Amino acid sequence: MHDSGISIWFFIGLSLLVNGVLIFGAGLYEYVAPPQNPVVLYQLHAGVWWGAILAVVGAGYCLKFRPSRTN
After folding, report:
1. Residue 37 domain flag
2. What is the dihedral of CA 29, 49, 60, 23, to 10 degrees?
3. 1 lies in a domain?
C-alpha cells in the first residue's frame, strides 16, 4: 500500500522543534537576566539544556520524515 500523505512524525518533529526553540530562548533569557527568587537547581540551567535537546530531536524528526523524502 502506498502512503501518499504527510507522516504524523513530521508534525511531531515540527512541534518538538518549535517548543525546543521557545524553551531554549526562555532559558537563555533567564541566564542573561536571572530571576530574583531562583528555583532550587537554577545553576544547572535546565531550560537551556532541555530546549537544545528538544530542538535537536525535533530537527532530526523533521529531516527524517520530511514530505519531499522518497522511499
Report:
1. yes
2. -30
3. no
Are the beta carbons of 53 and 20 closer than 8 angstroms?
A: yes
Rounded distance between C-alpha atoms, residue 61 and residue 42, angstroms: 30
pLDDT tens digits, 24-71 = 999 999 999 999 999 999 999 999 999 999 999 999 999 999 988 555
Non-local (6+) Cβ contacts of 19 within 8 A are 54, 58
Take residue 57 and report the three cell numbers written for it: 530531536
Structural domain boundaries enclosing 34:
8-64
Grid cell at residue 6: 504527510
| CB distance 50 to 1 below 8 Å | no
Grid cell in block for residue 30: 533567564
**Cα 48 versus chain centre, distance:** 11
